[in-house]
Amino acid sequence: MSKTVHIGSKSQFDSLLRSSKIVVTDFYADCYLDQIRSHLLRSTLNNNGKLHNDTELRRSLLLLYSRTPEIVESIKGADPRKLQAVVKKLSAEADSDGANGFGEASSSGSASWMAASLPKGYSDVTDQVDVRGLDLLNSASECGTARTLFDNSKPSALDSGKGKGKGPSNEEEDKKDWVESDTDEQLMLYVPFMSTLKVHTLHITSLPGKDDDEPPMRPKTIQLYSNRAHVLGFDEAEDLPATQAITLSPRDWDEKTGTAKVELRFVKFQNITSLVVFIVDGEGSGDKVRIDRMRIVGETGEKRDLGKLEKVGEHD
């Protein structure tokens, strides 16, 4: 059953809009605060086609969103019958659109491209990546940078079908919009966050070119290290115990989107301020590994004060 989520920031609200087919937002005035707060309910229908009993109506303005972060219906005052009818209608429309998959960006252009469905109760929190602090070791200079991995756009390889295409909107036209390793198959990625996160899943997209004589490989062995103050060196990472080690198999990659959903041991990824993603090797006998996109799925917590030094754990 869906629960009421108290919205604390615009980024959190935008993230929830992207992760839900239907969103009912309740805006109400608080006499003690000179601002408008929003309560968001990710509304679903039960088997009888009725709203869950915990749906709460107030003397308020209810705005309904569907598929894209655009208002498609508004209801003033407590009118449960009208809300019931509108949600049922939008639910039917959303279900009919499901055949289009999750690989398309919204028509408004403001939502992030998603290659895989989100686990129930969690949202895309990739917008909490602090791109200014990203670091990537052993990446080929002719390919994209660490920022490329978190770009909102759909990978060009999905349009060209050959792994070749122009870079995303914030890069030069001739820049490849993916990352490849350089001297060997290993990559080391440092990802700091602007908020404290609970990380549930990583979506990793890898689309090796089919027509290349020596195509790069998809990642196979991945080691994750949480809450590090900076990127790790390759030798350093080999000597440290990983927070979690993952081994991907060919069947983990979706044939259509080239994406693997990497579910984490959730209890180990609470209160996360940064991740180090160590690509140890690839699937195959090649010399290079390729990654096109990466998405972070979980929950957003308190904003971090990035202007102050923070105490790190004993392992730092």
Automatic annotation (TrEMBL):
Keywords: Disulfide bond
InterPro entries referenced in this protein's UniProt entry, alphabetically: Galactose-bd-like_sf (IPR008979), PITH_dom (IPR010400), PITH_dom_sf (IPR037047)
SUPFAM superfamilies: Galactose-binding domain-like
GO cellular component: cytoplasm
Region feature Disordered, mapped onto this chain: 148-180
A Pfam cross-reference name: PITH
Superkingdom of origin organism: Eukaryota
Domain PITH: 114-316
PANTHER family in alphabetical order: THIOREDOXIN-LIKE PROTEIN 1 (PTHR46115)
Family designation: Belongs to the thioredoxin family.
Name of this chain's protein: PITH domain-containing protein
